[in-house]
């Protein structure tokens, strides 16, 4: 192993000599680079390899490249790049290749290599990376799309991009996203050729060997992709996605017409009458279809009236839709449209008021039909509170909890409304919520209750509530309540009381590390901070978390070293206990941090 490391370090010498000779690095910095490189090399030559060691080595080399780039810019030196940067780039690629060869399933590692190649313009290497990555991860359509996009946009090779898409479709013959991006690519290729031909004609140049097929210029390849896709992929969502892509190109009017007539809007009510997206698209089309051409003589009032009429036509379609397809998804589409229109800026108060009334009316109709999704109740309540309709907000919140009586989020929503409006029945509502919701998920309700109680009720009532919450919550959730109880006691009862509460809370597991750290911090804030008590708190914490937390051991050692009443002679036994108690790689982590502590670097 040592021989391999020495050989790799010797391979660095030419580039390091050049760095020193041209004045980019000093001799002292060169020695530091060699020391660091030696340490990193030894780590990646071990028998038991770790991914983190490769990542750290790669990151160090990238940082070195960035530093060289900044130094070059500062002194204005741009020569010897082949001898310096090329050597480092080659080494980084080798490290990435070793890492991805060892951990083939780590997609993030592959993507990091791709990003590095793009950043340093390593086109040839990136082509190899994509090829190897796709051979291993052929089951991920997103990677095929990324590779094809790079071929099309960076290498300007539509042929290579097309080849990648065709290979991808052999693995994923029914992937809508692949077909959409392939369709987009063919349209981009057609647009590119149209622009080229236009430039040639503008310059009155003889096209000669350049043969521009009219079919390709008109997007025939994209049409073939679309027709093939429609045989395999059904559903209005794909049709609408393809249509939206086609609309981005100004030469696709015939193609849009084909999509609309044969597969789209004019036959949507026949083919996809039960799909909410069909109705959503049909309704939103009314906005565009009815848009008049702007003229100089159009007054603001006339524009507002026209916009109001178009929105009314949209809503008429939506009203028909919720009658034909009475589902939560359909009402969600309708409400989303209304909210979008309401949130659009307008100088007309009349139009804004009309949009508000329409939105509130749609919310109410959906609620009365018992088809309003749970997530939309929150938006309805916000709208009611903004509009100062507090009584209606209370009524809606109560109705929501009747319908979703087991939902913690819905009860929280109702309680926040009551708290915001300072209603008298907040406590009663909390009791009702706790009664309905299962104890395992009640933590958000208890935290909200005690936070409200802290600012409203007496200290005695709040303390009783904290103690009740500890009994009522599940063990894993009671941990948070213990932390909150400890913090509240210290703020309101002082040091002596918080010590008593801490002792009583320690009688029942489980605990969190923050619970102990909070008590340690409280002790350290006292004028007469006693090491005896700190030791007790650290020992309690170590009994629970000593096998999984290195920083706890190190903080204990620091306390013994730095506290006026500390005993530095105890550090040896604490270190020995830590080595025995910590698990796995944590021992090595602890040793390295302890060494830094001894040398004054931590």
Verbal overview:
The protein is mostly helical and 602 residues long. Among the domains are: 103 residues; 73 residues, no CATH class. 76% of the residues lie in helices and 0% in strands. The protein contains 30 helices and no strands. Helix 2 runs antiparallel to helix 3. The longest helix has 31 residues. The protein is flat, with a radius of gyration of 34 Å. It starts with a helix and ends with a helix. The model has no long low-confidence stretch (mean pLDDT 90). Pfam families: U3_assoc_6 (PF08640), UTP6_C (PF24892). It is found in: Nucleus, Nucleolus. Belongs to the UTP6 family. InterPro entries: HAT, TPR-like_helical_dom_sf, Utp6, UTP6_C, UTP6_N. GO terms for molecular function: snoRNA binding.
């Amino acid at each position: 192993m040592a021989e391999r490391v020495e050989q790799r370090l010797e391979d660095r010498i030419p580039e390091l000599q050049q760095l020193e000779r041209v004045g980019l690095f000093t001799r002292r910095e060169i020695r530091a680079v060699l020391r660091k490189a030696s340490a990193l090399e030894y780590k990646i030559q071990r028998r038991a390899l770790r991914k983190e060691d490769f990542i750290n080595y790669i990151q160090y080399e990238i940082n070195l490249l960035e530093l060289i780039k900044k130094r070059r810019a500062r002194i204005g030196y741009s020569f010897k790049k082949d001898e310096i940067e090329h050597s480092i780039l080659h080494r980084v690629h080798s490290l990435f290749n070793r890492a991805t060869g060892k951990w083939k399933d780590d997609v993030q590692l592959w993507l990091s290599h791709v990003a590095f190649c793009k950043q340093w313009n390593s086109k040839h290497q990136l082509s190899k990376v994509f090829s190897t990555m796709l051979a291993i991860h052929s089951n991920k359509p997103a990677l095929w799309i990324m590779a094809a996009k790079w071929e099309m946009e960076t290498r300007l090779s539509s042929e290579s991009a097309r080849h990648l898409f065709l290979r991808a479709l052999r693995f994923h013959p029914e992937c809508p996203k692949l077909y959409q991006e392939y369709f987009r690519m063919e349209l981009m290729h057609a647009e590119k050729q149209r622009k080229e031909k236009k430039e040639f004609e503008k310059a009155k140049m003889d096209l000669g060997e350049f043969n521009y097929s009219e079919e390709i210029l008109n997007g025939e390849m994209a049409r073939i992709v679309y027709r093939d896709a429609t045989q395999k992929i059904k559903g209005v969502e794909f049709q609408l996605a393809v249509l939206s892509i086609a609309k981005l190109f100004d030469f696709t009017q015939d193609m849009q017409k084909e999509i609309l007539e044969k597969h789209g809007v004019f036959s949507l009510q026949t083919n996809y009458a039960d799909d909410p997206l069909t109705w959503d698209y049909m309704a939103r089309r009314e906005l565009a279809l009815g848009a008049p051409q702007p003229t100089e003589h159009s007054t603001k009032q006339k524009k507002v009236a026209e916009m109001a009429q178009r929105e009314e036509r949209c809503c008429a379609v939506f009203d028909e839709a919720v009658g034909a397809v009475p589902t939560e998804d359909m009402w969600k589409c309708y409400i989303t449209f209304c909210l979008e229109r309401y949130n659009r800026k307008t100088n007309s108060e009349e139009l804004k008021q009309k949009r508000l009334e329409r939105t509130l009316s749609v919310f109410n109709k959906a609620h009365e039909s018992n088809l309003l999704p749970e997530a939309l109740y929150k938006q309805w309540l916000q709208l009611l509170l903004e509009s100062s309709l507090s009584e209606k907000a209370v009524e809606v919140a109560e109705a929501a909890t009747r319908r979703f009586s087991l939902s913690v989020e819905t009860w929280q929503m109702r309680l926040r409304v009551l708290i915001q409006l300072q209603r008298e029945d907040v406590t009663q509502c909390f009791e009702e919520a706790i009664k309905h919701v299962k104890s395992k998920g009640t933590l958000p309700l208890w935290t909200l209750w005690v936070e409200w109680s802290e600012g409203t009720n007496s200290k005695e009532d709040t303390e009783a509530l904290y103690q009740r919450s500890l009994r009522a919550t599940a063990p894993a959730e009671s941990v948070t309540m213990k932390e909150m109880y400890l913090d509240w006691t210290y703020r309101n009862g002082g040091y002596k009381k918080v010590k008593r509460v801490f002792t009583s809370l320690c009688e029942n597991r489980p605990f969190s590390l923050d619970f102990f750290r909070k008590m340690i911090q409280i002790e350290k804030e006292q004028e007469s901070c006693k090491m005896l008590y700190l030791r007790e708190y650290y020992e309690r914490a170590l009994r629970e978390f000593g096998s999984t937390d290195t920083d706890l051991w190190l903080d204990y050692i620091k306390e013994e070293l730095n506290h006026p009443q500390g005993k530095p002679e105890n550090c040896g036994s604490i270190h020995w206990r830590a080595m025995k108690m910590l698990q796995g790689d944590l021992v090595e982590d602890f040793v390295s941090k302890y060494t830094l502590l001894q040398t004054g670097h931590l």
